[in-house]
Amino acid sequence: MSFSTLEWTVIRLAAAPREARSARIGAFHRMLRHIAPLLRAPAPLADPRLEALRVLAAALHRRRPATAEDMAEFLAAGWGEGDAARVVRAVDQVSARER
Questions:
Q1: The whole model's pTM is what?
Q2: 1: confidence class by pLDDT, cuts 50, 70, 90
Q3: Which superkingdom (predicted)?
Q4: pLDDT in tens, 34-47
Q5: Cα 60–Cα 63–Cα 66 angle in degrees, nearest 5
């Protein structure tokens, strides 16, 4: 089973680099670096299955292991163990394209 177009979109957005968008180092941009994360905290997706996918993909993109809670929510949302391995490969694929 492969990911749907919508699921791929969720993975790509979760793995999108945000920090590289402002390369300037002026005083305004330094201030934005501290404020911007507060403004762009993502709202949970309405679909619990897609939200669980987003949370797992974002965690993997940040190169941190998924927490037990993340995995429990992922599995509870109807995903399987094999799906988690596919998310790992998908995030690696998206990250490799961005390099």
A1: 0.72
A2: low
A3: Bacteria
A4: 666 655 656 788 99
A5: 45
